[in-house]
Amino acid sequence: MALLLLLLVLTVSAVSADEDAFVGVNIGTDLSDMPHPTQVVALLKAQQIRHVRLYNADRGMLLALANTGIKVAISIPNEQLLGIGQSNSTAANWVSQNVVAHYPATNITTICVGSEVLTALPNAARVLVSALKFIQSALVASNLDKQIKVSTPLASSIILDSFPPSQAFFNHSWNPVLIPMLNFLQSTGSYFMINVYPYFDYMQSNGVIPLDYTLLKPLPSNKEAVDANTLLHYSNVFDAMVDAAYFAMAYLNFTNIPVMVTETGWPSKGDSNEPDATLDNANTYNSNLIKHVLNNTGTPRHPGISVSTYIYELYNEDTKPGPVSEKNWGLFDANGVPVYILHLTGSGSVLANDTANQTFCTAKDGADAKMLQAALDWACGPGKVDCSPLLQGQACYEPDNIFAHATYAFNTYYHQMGRTPGSCDFNGVATITTTNPSHGSCIYLGSGDKNGTLLNSTIPAMDSKSSYSPAKFVYGNVFSAAAYIVVGVIGWIAVLL
């Protein structure tokens, strides 16, 4: 058996992807106070998130995402699957209303047909492949089949005997669905989509799987797991599960279908019987995952071929049923405040706030006082910076001079805008520094706090004509936090490009 599997390994052809691997984010909606689509998109833009997956094809979200360049995976909810899988015309109507009506303004790249259908809705399994084919036919008819991929996310539990990966195989009872599905994915150049949750593997292992092995922490070679059939070394559960998917497909003679991870993550809070659902572990897992995907390491079976991955998820979903952990997979709360600040040093050009690479925006030494005043007035006016901490008696009033006050306003605006190029200029009187200007109880955004970003409107660009009087600033422009939603610039990824 081992020899047979080794031969199988040697015959597996290289898998390639159409584009560089990316890290995206899933957007669930089980929130008691779901942000408006324009607020969601403002958050995505501020965090430089370039790939998202929706669990439906919500018209408001698709309209808000238009002309942003953000690449969007939309979904056919499971409750609509039976109708679409039994009617070509129903599928065509769905594509017309949810794809053709929005493309190309909204950059739809993927259609996910259902979610974990085989395990979540097994009675619809019989029409799953028909649904895939009907949706594909509708795309062909609209001349969009080359631009948009069609697939279906599956639960990793359909893979049996997943370690060592070389012994992995699909639950044979699903072969009548999986084989034609894999034929479809291969013929259309699409992805095998799988949801990978090392957290659950760890919880169910009763201590057999070490925590560090699930958190993608660097391990010495003598701590790595070795596949005895292939002698490949595995340092984390994520890679092992991805390779298990490759081997399971190879077992059915499919060797050139790339894997995409449509869900993965770690909860930041749990019940008393979930002691490892913590902020630190969630931060560690997602930070290490982002770096791992983006550094193009690939997996032991396919080195150098990274797997595009969507993190679960953007928001904590407080109305999600189940244990406390089910409500706490999000990177942000409903107000857009980050649950934790990711640690992304070494992962290339990364989003907004890598805490190990803090930058601040300050007034330039020697800048003209009148220009500083004009820029300060603009920041506290059209720039929508909350300048109330600069009022007399407040934390950042002292030192009471134009340089210090302008620095506070400039830095706040810079971080609200996600530290994007050009957001620290102010007609040439501002500059970027790594020196933290915080002092006493006056804490500047970017100091490891919950950094801010504007969510409910688009901040206008400053021009030389912008001017607000000091009186207006003091008396008429004390913006409260209600004027914008404070969020941490945990940065999302340039790779999300």
UniProtKB/TrEMBL annotation:
The chain crosses the membrane at residues 473-496. This is glucan endo-1,3-beta-D-glucosidase. SMART domains: X8. It comes from the Eukaryota. SUPFAM superfamilies: (Trans)glycosidases. It is found in: Cell membrane. GO terms for molecular function: glucan endo-1,3-beta-D-glucosidase activity. It catalyses: Hydrolysis of (1->3)-beta-D-glucosidic linkages in (1->3)-beta-D-glucans. Belongs to the glycosyl hydrolase 17 family. Gene3D superfamilies: 1.20.58.1040, Glycosidases. PROSITE patterns: GLYCOSYL_HYDROL_F17. GO terms for biological process: carbohydrate metabolic process; defense response. Pfam families: Glyco_hydro_17 (PF00332), X8 (PF07983). Coiled coil: none annotated. The keyword Acetylation does not apply. One of its GO terms (cellular component) is plasma membrane. InterPro entries: GH, Glyco_hydro_17, Glyco_hydro_17_plant, X8. Its EC number is 3.2.1.39. Residues 359-444 form the X8 domain. Residues 1-17 form the signal peptide. It is a lipid-anchor; GPI-anchor.
